[in-house]
Amino acid sequence: MKDNLSNIQNHFLVMAAQDGNEAALDKLVSLWQKKLWQYVFRLTTDVHASWDITQQCWLEIIKGLTKLHDPANFKAWAYRIATNRTIDWLKNKKKNQHINLESIEVDSNRKDNDSQVKELVQRLKSDSRVILSLYYFEQLSIPEISIALNIPTGTVKSRLFTAREELKQLWKKYFDN
To answer: Domain containing 141: what range?
Structure first.
C-alpha cells in the first residue's frame, strides 16, 4: 500500500514539475537525491565523484523532464541516467577493468554477511555491479531495469543470471571453507 501511495505521489510530482511547478520539482529532488546518490556511490565507491555524478544526473533529469511521456517511468528513467553517467565516469577512470582475483584479500572472520556481499559486489565487473545494484539494492523490477538500461527483458534476465553466477563464484572462493 505504501509503495502504491509513493508511486502516485511520484507521478503527480513529475506531472506538476513538467508543468513548471518549482515546488514539485524541489520535492521530487528531495525524494530522489539520496536514492540516486547511494546507487551511484555503490557503483563508484567514491564519495566526491558520486556527488558530482548525481548533480550531473539532476541537470539531465531537469532538462529532459518535459520529454518524459509516462510519469510512471520516472524511476527507471532516472536510474538510466544515473547508470549512464556512472558508467561514463567508470570508463574515464578505467575502474571497469577486471580485478585480479588473486590479489583480493578478504578477512572473513571480521565481516558479517551483509558487508561481505557488499564487498564482493564491489569487486564485480561494472556491468554485473549495475544489474545487481538495480535489482537487489534499488529494488527495480525486471521491466524497470529493462527501461533503465534500454535492453530487452530477456537480456536483463540473462545478465542477472550471469552476475549472480559471478558473485557466487567469488563467494565460494573467499567465504566457503
So the answer is: 99-177
Spatial separation of the C-alpha atoms in residues 76 and 86, rounded to whole Å:
15
pTM of the complete model beyond 0.90 = no
Question: Which residues, in sequence order, are CB contacts of 88 under 8 Å at separation 6+?
Answer: none
| pLDDT tens by residue, 49-63 | 999 999 999 999 999
Same domain, 49 and 109: no
Are 82 and 128 contained in the same domain? Answer: no
- Give the 3-state secondary structure of the chain: CHHHHHHHHHHHHHHHHHCCCHHHHHHHHHHHHHHHHHHHHHHHCCHHHHHHHHHHHHHHHHHHHHHCCCHHHHHHHHHHHHHHHHHHHHHHHCCCCCCCHHHCCCCCCCCCHHHHHHHHHHCCCHHHHHHHHHHHHCCCCHHHHHHHHCCCHHHHHHHHHHHHHHHHHHHHHHHCC
For residues 89 and 156, membership in a common domain is answered with: no
